[in-house]
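Z., the sequence and structure:
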Amino acid sequence: MNANLHLPALLLFTLASALSAAETPTFPATDWPNWRGPTHDGIAPAGQNPPTQFSTTENILWKAPVPGRGHGTPIVIGDKVVLLAADAQAQVQSAIAYDRATGKVRWKTDVHKGGFMRHNKKASQANGSLACDGARIFFNFPNAGAAWTTALELATGKILWQKRLTDYVVHQGYGSTPLVYKDRLIVAADNKKAGLTAALDRATGKSLWSRKRPKKPNYPSPVIFNLGGKDQLILTGCDLVTSLDPMSGRENWEFKGATTECVSTPVTDGVHVFTSGGYPTNHVSAMRTDGTGKIVWTHKTRVYVPSMVVKDGHLYAATDGGIGYCWNSTTGEILWKGRLGGTISASPTLVGDKLYVGNEAGDFYIFKATPKAFEIITKTRLGDQLMASPVIVGNRIYQRTTIRNGGTRQEMLFCIGKP
C-alpha cells in the first residue's frame, strides 16, 4: 500500500494535536485538577453529597501516611490523588501520587535533594498545590536560593522538565501554585529580591514571556477570570491589583488596591475583584473590573491566608482568627459574622449551600453559605492540625491532616465518604 495515502490522516491528527495543545484542558466533574478546584474559586462541582458527619474513624474510606510535612492541598485526577511533601530529615522535596480507590502509593518522585531554605515556623517546604493539563502535573518549590517549577508525567511521576524561575528570598514561605492556560503555564514568584510573573510552555518549560514584579514579599497564586469579555490574569499584593493579558503578559490595568503581603487567591463576581491580605494592614476590598481602579468598598478584616468564596451576590470568608463572615458583595455590608474557632489557614470549599473548612487545631467545620444567618452545621475533630484546604469531588472529601502521638508527628491523607 502506498504510504502517501496516509498523509492526509496524519496531517489531520497532527493538526488536531496542535489545536488541543493550544486550548485550556477541560476535565470531568469527578476531577479536581488545580488549586481551588475546577473553576479556581473554591466551589466544588454541582450535585455533590459528601458526608456532613465524620471523624478520624467515622466515614473514613481510607487513610494514607504522608512522609515529612506540607501544607499544600492535593489534586484529584482520574485514578490518582497527588500532593507535595517535604522531608526535613532527609532533605527531600517530593510529589506523591496515591491510588484514588485505595490510598496506596502509585509513585513517589523526589524532585529536590538538599537546598532547603529557612522560613517561618508555621510554613513548610511544601506549601503549594499543583496543576494538571491531563498528561502532566506542575508545581513550584523554593530550593537553593531560587523558585523552581517542575513538570512530571502524570502516569509515572517521571520528571519531564524543570525551570529555575528566579532568585528567591524566603520571608514567610513560598506557596504560589502554577496555573494551566491554553498552551502555557502561568507562574508567580513575588519576593524581596527578584519577583516575577511568567508564562512557560507547558510542554517544554521554555519561557514565553516574563514580567518583573516589585521587590516585596508576597505569596498569592495567579488566577485567570473572563472579565469584560476577555480572559484576564489577576495578581494581587505588592500593594497592587494587576490585570495582565495571559497570552502576551501585557498590562491591561494596574492600581493600588491591596496591601503588601497577601496569601489568598482573589475571587470575582464578574463586576468586582475581591482581594484580601494581612500585612502591613488587614484588608478585604472590592475593586471594579472595568479598568477604572475604583474601589467600591473595603474593610479592615484579617483574611490574610484563607481565600474567600463568592455565591449569589454574597462574599463568604473564614478569617485567620476563626470568624465566619458574610458580606453583600456589591455594597460590602456585613450581613453576619460568627465564631468558628481557633486559627484558620485553610481556604473554605463550597458545596451547594455549605462551606467546609478546618483550623490549625484540627477542628473541622461545616457552616451554611446563606445571607440569612450564621449557622454551624457540623464541628468535629479531624486530627491535630489542619493546614490544607479540603478537596471535595465525587461525593468524597480529601483532607490532609496531622496526627500527633506523644512526640511523634505524622501527616495523613484522609479520603472521607459514605461506605
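The two ends are 56 Å apart (CA to CA). The longest strand covers residues 396-405.

Let me know what you think.
H.
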